[in-house]
Amino acid sequence: MAITEAKHVDTRDRIMDAAEGLFARGGFNATSLRAITNEANVNLASVNYHFGSKDRLIVEVIKRGIRPINSERLTRLAELTKNKNGSPVPLEKVLDCFYRPAFEYFQDNSKINFLRLLGRLLYETGPFTKAILEEEWMPLFEPYFNALKTALPHLEDDEITWRFHFALGSMIFTVSQYESLEAMSCDNCTIRDDFEPAIQRLIAFTTAGMNNPHALKSNS
Amino acid sequence: MAITEAKHVDTRDRIMDAAEGLFARGGFNATSLRAITNEANVNLASVNYHFGSKDRLIVEVIKRGIRPINSERLTRLAELTKNKNGSPVPLEKVLDCFYRPAFEYFQDNSKINFLRLLGRLLYETGPFTKAILEEEWMPLFEPYFNALKTALPHLEDDEITWRFHFALGSMIFTVSQYESLEAMSCDNCTIRDDFEPAIQRLIAFTTAGMNNPHALKSNS
DNA sequence: GACTATTTTAAACGAACGTTTGAACTAAAT
DNA sequence: ATTTAGTTCAAACGTTCGTTTAAAATAGTC
Questions:
Q1: What is the per-residue pLDDT across B50-60, written as a single tens digit (0 to 9) for each?
Q2: Of A105, A101, A100, nearest in space to A117 by CA
């Protein structure tokens, strides 16, 4: 049974690896199962055998990729607030806990496409995509929103939401559209070899933006 | 000939209007010509008659939408730098010239989907999409980069490029993913009825982020 | 009213898609 | 050696896609 299971898992993972790269590069609808099974060197029918359908394949691919990132985000934030129990947590440390697990994906070359797939997912439509995002996002939003609230006590809730949204946009754009940044800078500004300059600049940028003492009145 | 041209233009525009909305909602590959022609109440073959192919249809849709935005961006920046000839231009005014023409698209309900289509285009693949984006972006990048350089004389070129990239991410995310912001805030933070609070907050956020005096050394 | 050019229409084309099927294959258990 | 459960495989299924075709309809010209 050991070898049988090894084969099983092997085929499953080869399909998911190939699907992850092809979905990120060409999109979900534009990527055919035949393209995936060709790249994975498996039979066409094995996708429906192991996953049931193409829809459930992408769900598994996304969950496999996003869960270690998000659990790491929660773990680091919990450690951060635990060690500083009571006293306010520095804003830049909170943002570091949120950004870094995503950036660390770039260390693994086989995962470099996944963040682009996640960014693309925001624009994909379908019965499953929105559900996955909300399902994986909601457990993350509350703890981080509370951490931001204690770090920015002078701001109203909606103001924090606005600024968190802006920071999210910067991060997502940075990790999923890095190619356009490379093009703009003639490859001077890159994220591939070492993400530390990128994440430090991103933290500096978004910390300054969120710390801005001036705020619009009320929630209008 | 007058009525003939009217019909011609009418069918063309009805196709483009329907395509813009459907492409934005469901993506390029997932939207069939039959869905477009049904929504536009025109015959299926008229797409190929008027545009030649589905690929050339999306090119025309994108160009029709992006050109008035980008020409307005250039016009307003030119006026801004002309009136303040010589003296440095305030950073927030430069960003206002860049952001506002995009946000003003939300005033026209028929155009509300176009910015989402543009955001989605960043993640679409194809021989035409990247070419359009670069073709329409390059004439914009140089003037705005120069304006940012004079507004931020203490920063190196690459540092400006990084921060401009972060600001771009915030803006694109705001105009194309406003639904997730509404969900996070229980519809307290919205952009639909009035974009002025959104654009002012976005300008405040990105101005603070770009003005940050601290900068990483060198271009590493 | 006949003629020409332009546009619209219904129908069909071949190709590619996700999925299903049933037989062949593999490896551990009896 | 036979059985059994799990997996792989080639082939085919029905559907949908973008595109093409040729006839019908429309509008302007003489």
A1: 999 999 999 99
A2: A105
pTM metric for this prediction: 0.91
Task: Say whether residue A27 is in contact with chain B using an 8 A CB cutoff.
Answer: yes
Q: Which residues of B166-180 are buried (b: 16+ CB within 10 A; e: fewer)?
A: bbbbbbbbbbbbbeb
User: What are the tens digits of pLDDT across the range A16-43?
Assistant: 999 999 999 888 989 999 999 999 999 9
Rounded to whole angstroms, how far apart are CA atoms A153 and A156? 8
- B188 vs A contacts (CB less than 8 Å): 158, 161, 219
Indicate if CB(B55) is under 7 A from strand D. yes
| Tens digit of each residue's pLDDT (9 = 90 or more) over A90-140 | 999 999 999 999 999 877 777 878 999 999 888 887 667 778 888 999 999
Spatial contact of A125 and B27, defined as CB atoms under 8 Å apart: yes
CA A171, distance to chain mean position in Å, is 9
Please tell me whether any atom of strand C lies within 7 Å of the Cβ of B10: yes
Separation of alpha carbons B11 and B211, rounded Å: 49
Q: Is the CB of A4 under 7 A from strand C?
A: yes
Longest dimension (CA), chain A: 66
Nearest of B98, B104, B64 to residue B170 by alpha carbon: B98
